[in-house]
Amino acid sequence: MGVGAATVRFRNLVQKGPAEHRCRRTFKTTSAGDEPKNELEVHEQPREQQGCRCFEEMRRKVKQPPQKFPDYLEEDGKLYRHIAHRACNEEVASWKMCIPIGQRQRVMTENHDMPTAARYYWPGMHRGVRKYVRNCECCMMYKPSQLQAAGKMLTQVPEEPWATVCADFVGPLPRSKHGNSMLLVLVDRFSKWTEIVPMRRATTETMRKAVRERIVARYGVPKVMITDNNVQLTIRAFRKFLEELGVRHQLTAPYTPQENPTERANRTVKTMIAQFTGADQRTWDEHWPELQLAVNTSVAETTGYSPAFITQGREPRLPNALFDEKTTGTGKCTQTPVENAEKLKEIFELVRRNMEKAVQDQARHYNLRRRPWKPKVRDTVWAKEHHLSKAAEGFAAKLAPRFDGPYMIKKFTSPVICVLEHKTSKKEKTAHISDLKPGSAGAGGPGDFEE
């Protein structure tokens, strides 16, 4: 028997034709009149493809005349379509079985949940596959998102000094000779003035004392205080303390340090402490007053002025400075209080303009790595997990689920921060939209695969 007359039978396909067009591994080669004996071969009745108008119409077209539709083939009552592999790989099946609506859910389970090859076709198949995969909890939990992080940078410029105060803890550090092991950093968002407060422990009481003595007693009560989600800053006692002062407490989303402006000041402070500490790290709190003076008398690139000049309207004298040694008096013309007030107003306006320009430049660079995405309330999402490896318990973060869910978006506390509610446990959590990926509302059924 010649090669051209051979009938090659496949696991899910019977194909007649030259051997060079056969793309799947054969299970048995027989003559054209032989019947297949492998129970895995498909010989289903034509009625199983009934209900798909497009397939019924194509079946009629293929029968008369078949030359006009070379990409379709009817064999044993089953309809197949030829879809060539994009890389012309002859090892990949090019004839795909056309699947009716009633069997598409089974095909999804067979090819997604089990290690089998792709060999099917129906109109809108890629759309149906995407929807099915989005409903697979295993995929949503373990597979990383391939998209850029969501959430554009929010641009907000404070109006005046000490209207918005940011706070953050640094530590734990080596216990110093004074018994301190934590460092509290308070920053005025407008002037960039920084307060450094060494502490023995980071507690709510020490935080309240620092705010009263370092901020309220010297500069007045701020309108807004921005902090992260440390336990000392989120418990009821501290929230009540801020409510009594009339301060609005604004929390950043977990694992998003870029939302707290104090992080930039922390880097400067930690670098300076490391430089002055040297080998004996127990002396890290010995020079904090001089370090605070140095930070507050340095010109900030964002504002164009030093924090001390914006806050006090003058530059403080520095220890043993050559300028004061050689200059008699202040070296400035005497001005009346009215003139000083007008000058400060002009400086504040310049600072606002400089900060707006700096924020726009920062946002332009930041948004290059971000995509615009705004989920809606009641949308289904999955939240990113942040595991820590525990060798003693045999737990590796690399093998842990990357996402948890499904969650429903309950509300937004800012354009990029939302409160989530777990659909099963009803547990609530706060997350930045960069830690979310969209999920489907429910599992796919037969109706999800209709044309």
From TrEMBL:
Superkingdom as given in the UniProt entry: Eukaryota
EC number(s) per entry: 2.7.7.49
GO biological process per UniProt: DNA integration
Biased amino acid composition, Gly residues: 441-451
Domain (Integrase catalytic) ranges: 157-315
Biased composition annotated in UniProt, kind: Basic and acidic residues: 425-435
Chain spans, region Disordered: 425-451
GO molecular function, one term: nucleic acid binding
PROSITE patterns in the record: INTEGRASE (PS50994)
Record-linked InterPro entries: Integrase_cat-core, Integrase_H2C2, Retrovirus_Pol_polyprotein, RNaseH-like_sf, RNaseH_sf
A Pfam family annotated for this UniProt entry: rve
Protein name per its UniProtKB record: RNA-directed DNA polymerase
